[in-house]
């Protein structure tokens, strides 16, 4: 294979935007993390969600300390991860805005731990906060999943700073047969 010319090769501390672009090469899904704290509902769009462990069932996500819901989530015993479906870009944008009442204009129901479950998602996870870890300007939240629900819907994706839709890779079948 030919050696490719790097679009960026440098120190992320000096060039944060180039660092963001590098990170954007890693495609993710899009989630809305929600919680109900003393009857106040909080939620924000999150793509730092990742699976951690199957046994015990653990996931993680991280929240920036500039987020207005930072203190609420830092003290939350429970939360829900809503995995957005491919037709939920507007919901992602809605929960990506800072502060205010985000729940009066979107359809949702209360999960078993009280955290809002958004209508039409591809999956959701109800979690208890297992541990929290400082990571630079973010707090990494590890959650223990006690309820996982999947729907027959395709997930919304995010890569290279843009929303994407998943489609089957034509090479997938070929390599499956070959290997
Ligand atoms: C696709 C996408 C992914 C995001 N991922 C995260 C994330 O993982 N962690 C985070 O703290 N903010 C993330 N954000 C930004 C927050 O959603 C945004 O700062 C929001 O306004 C915070 O809401 P709040 O101030 O009401 O808490 C993301 C935004 C978008 C659009």
* Element-by-element helix/strand order: HEEEEEHEHEEEEEEH
The ligands found in this model are: flavin mononucleotide
Write out the strand line-up for the largest beta sheet, numbering strands in chain order. 3-2-6-9-10-5-4
> What is the CATH homologous superfamily assignment?
Electron Transport, Fmn-binding Protein, Chain A
Helix and strand composition category: alpha+beta
| Chain-averaged pLDDT | 96
Number of extended strands: 12
Number of domains: 1
Strand portion:
35-45%
CATH architecture title? Roll
**What is the top-level CATH class?**
Mainly Beta
Which key phrases capture this entry?
single chain, 179 residues, alpha+beta, Pnp Oxidase, Chain A, binds flavin mononucleotide
Question: What does this protein structure show overall?
Answer:
The chain is 16% helix and 41% strand. The chain is α+β, with helices and mostly antiparallel strands and 179 residues long. The strands form 3 sheets. The protein has a 7-stranded antiparallel sheet with strand order 3-2-6-9-10-5-4. Strands 1-11-12 form a 3-stranded antiparallel sheet, with no helix packed on it. Strands 7-8 form a two-stranded antiparallel sheet. Flavin mononucleotide (FMN) binds at residues 30, 44-48, 62-64, 67-69, 92, 96-99, 158.
